[in-house]
């Protein structure tokens, strides 16, 4: 069961309920350190609200994740239930980029 589409939820609770962080304290720390963005805005407060349709970017477990909120969870349930609350945008083909072709300089090219 999910909350209404017009309602909001604290970002730290959302991250913990959806199992994107292991603990709520870890979610709060990510927010306070500025590692979270909601719709492109840097979040520095754990109590910042998120709503259905928001795009959340976060740096967790050594990688950047971008997700779109599809529904707000009401509890920290099992993993399949948590994953049903968001869409992972990095998995979308149009979001993929290759790091190997972006900005690497060949050894043959010399710079003065």
TrEMBL record:
Return the PROSITE patterns for the record: S4
Highest taxon, organism lineage: Bacteria
Query: RNA-binding S4 domain location, by residue?
Result: 9-73
Is RNA-binding there in the keyword field? Answer: yes
**Family annotation (Pfam families):** S4
InterPro entries named among the record's database cross-references:
S4_RNA-bd (IPR002942), S4_RNA-bd_sf (IPR036986)
Keywords in UniProt for this one?
A: RNA-binding
Name listed for the protein in its UniProt record: RNA-binding S4 domain-containing protein
The major lineage groups are: Bacteria, Pseudomonadati, Pseudomonadota, Alphaproteobacteria, Sphingomonadales
